[in-house]
Predict the structure.
Amino acid sequence: MGASVASIAVAPTVFNAPAIAQNETSDIDWSMGFPDDATLLNRNENPIGPSPKAIEAAKLGIEKSFRYADSIYIKSLLAGQFDVDADHVLVGTGSGEMLNAAPLAYMTDSNHNMVATWESYRPIPGRAQRLGGKVKWVNLLPEENYQYDVDRLLSAVDENTRLLFMVTPNNPTGTILSYANIKRLADELPEHVLLILDGAYRDFQEGETDEIELVKQGYKNILVTRTFSKTYAMAGLRAGYAVAHPDVIRKIAQFAGSPTSTNMAGFGAMAASIGDMDYLRKSRDFVNNARTYFERELGAMRINTLAGPPIFILAETGENTQAISDELRSRKIFVRPGGEWGMSNHMRVSYGLDHENAAFIAALKDIIG
Ligand SMILES: Cc1ncc(COP(=O)(O)O)c(C=O)c1O
């Protein structure tokens, strides 16, 4: 039988494959689809990069990457850091892996729902919906600087609620759920509800009792997730973890955090970063300085801002926010207009290096006059 049209069309691609594989490393396109000289202030990445120690360890990890990177050792380091047993810890491909597993593990019936805040990070509620579950949205309080309304969160919970998803500090508002309010939620939630505390930006926050204390006290209804993506600037190494009572860890581990979830470069970089207080200080200082700069510059332009410990600021750029963001984009400066969080008059700007921040401010001044 003669070759079909489809196989003829495919053949040249197959034939060219070796040429692609033989590319020099200098030929690799690292742009990720953005223009080469783009200023990326849209993805909450930490531009100071991993610590030199983490980079060295990641390189060593690559040499050892013929092996699977079983995360037992990382679990024991994290368990030591938080003073819990290793069965309280799960390590995975970013904290997102464990967060994504929560609806799978807990929302097992189409009647089940998740309670989540509207002006917040949406992928996890989105996943719950895609699994056929419902999401009961609760607004933050704009009139109170986008604080959480704990009473309303509790009253949204019903007999079918299985998860209460909280991001603290929040993305994009920077709002902090205090330890007292976390404890109140944990104490008052019915037994069938797991409180998720997505702490992607938690390591930037200082001076508050760590909610992991509650896990240590034996609370069985809290799942804390943290990541090396933000404070430790390792977004591309995909390294994160969860801390919870072993019963919760076992449920999440049905769908996440297997021994093959960690990659060897991430394994090395995590091991070199756990307990690195010097780098933590450096990262926090970077964010504090950037926040001060943005608050001053945006304040001088009479633009209201909202910022907490995380690596971004929310700027109230008004009803033209989408158009302003589009214009910035045409100048290769990328920010995140707030429509996706129901905050269409705001844009979220991740902190970049000094020259990137200055380029953003100069372009914004030019656009809004
Ligand atoms: C609030 C929040 N949670 C979780 C994540 C996922 O982080 P990771 O890189 O650890 O998967 C992000 C990433 O932007 C985030 O903003």
